[in-house]
Fold:
Amino acid sequence: MKVLKKELIDLRWRFLFMIFLLLIVFLFVVYGRRYVVTSLPYDLHLLKDSFISKILNMDQLLKEINLMRESIRYYIWSQWYGKNFYQLILLSIILYGFSLFSRETERKTIYFLLSRVNRRVVFFSKVFAGTIFLLFTILIGGILPLFISFNLGLVGKIMLSSFITSLFLYMIVIFFSIYVNDDVKSVVFSILFFFILSIPGFFSGLSVFNIYRYMKGIDIYKAGNLPFLPLTFVFILSLILFWINWWTFRTKEF
Amino acid sequence: MNPMIRLRSVNKEYKGKVILKDINMEVHKGSIHAIVGPNGAGKTTILKIITGFTFPTRGEVFVDGLLGFLPESKALYGEKSVKDMLKMAEELTPFWQNTTMEDLLRVFGLDMDKRVGELSFGKRTQLFLVILFSQDVPLYILDEPTLGLDPIVSNKVFSIIKQKAIGGKTILYSSHNLSDIEEVADEITIMRKGVIIYSGDLDTLKERLDKNLKEAFLYLMEEDYNEGFKKRTY
Structure:
């Protein structure tokens, strides 16, 4: 508990920063609706010769624009859960995880820590501290739309889906934090890996492998149900990564 | 005497390079045991193996009980004040003794409000020593404890080490300062290029070679350089 307290204290400013950022971005999304809606084109024929018409399905785009114009619920889902919220979660995953281990190694404070507390306690406390803040970040960011108009059951499912996928990504960041002995490398490798994970999203046939799809809650919004199978698979992968991280830390030489 | 630490046929290789070769040594309970050798001899690696920060490629390591460790880097949390650092150490360290900490703070005279990151290397070492010796454990392992300390402070450190040994604690430390070792240590391990040249009683070494420690050390280094590395028993 003492190491956990230390880690929570160490991460508290990052958490507060993330909450502040969530609130600011959410306010921008909500109060920016009028501007966004009025600035969207009514007649997509105006765009038929533009570059955008070559890469997007214009009929689908028109449908989504009309939905955003007509329904605040659709607007919040698409602009908050579908765009800003999941990106802020990605930022918080990196912020909470990247330096947990690499900073101790880089600054050599790991000698102070590990000569007092065993590796198991250090590992679990550090990983758990980040998980707690990640959970609260998702909870706070996830419930914000409830103040406007949203279905509690739907929000709960989206938050659960976001949390499970976030755990997987958090375990990847933790792995880099343990494996490399440098904060900068830990961030760079994490971002690079996050980008690689987004590649299936560029191909419609592979979109089921796009982890961000489950963070955004696309299937939940459209079908109303949790994508049970993919989430179970992601959760199992997270557990495997957790074990790999523990093994890497337990056998790491300093 | 019972060994507090025992290393049997310890070997360490890293990226195909031999760091330690067939290390056998014992550190006895209540002794002050110094490890000495040129840079790159493997002193720090031995200490890291004993403390569990690195692992031997082959061989056995036995440590009897809990230990306190002063690392070569003396790295602490730079953003904290000395006061907060001590508070954090107190929270994390088992067998912490506040009375010992207060006594040691009087000896070293640290500015409690200063940030650790603003301390000189010497002052940071002193703070780490306060933290180290405030922990009541049977074994203390110190990597270059007097590096960066002036002779007056070094003398204080050796007084504390002697007091701890009198109180039944075991001290294992590495150093380059042969005159200090001669003054405080009763056991010595001399190393060169990952091999132990001598490990045992300090007085016995001096008597057998009929030399003081500095002369004995230089003699062994030179002899070994000419004859190849062998562990000697005198």
